[in-house]
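Morning!

This is the sequence you dropped in the shared folder:
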Amino acid sequence: MAMCLCGSGAEASSCCSRFLDGDAVPASPEQLMRSRYTAFARGDARYLMSTWHPGTAPAELSLDDATQWLGLEILDAPPVADDAKRGVVEFVARYRESSGTRGRIHERSRFVRQSGRWWYLDGVHS
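The structure's back. Tokens below.
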């Protein structure tokens, strides 16, 4: 039993793997944020691009395979109503570069629901 990389405490197959494998779509901004973190940790640029809103996504995304993702902490993820069109998640993601340098990303991400699914829109770094 492999635990999910997103830090939820759930088994990967019942957490983010089902989203990355295309078996389900995230039902909330927090689920999408966790699955995107897992995609970064796995080096899955395809999933990251497929969940990035087309209006704000970069033309291409290059990931550094040598970056090791060390953990995700969700600081704030207000629940969203079933008919909500927008959501936010504040998180801290820790990583280590191949040089050994450690870093962290503290972001308040914005999400939008369109076409029956959640999309990552953008984020503000702290």
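Headline: Residues 29-42 form the longest helix (14 residues).

More detail when I'm at my desk.
O.
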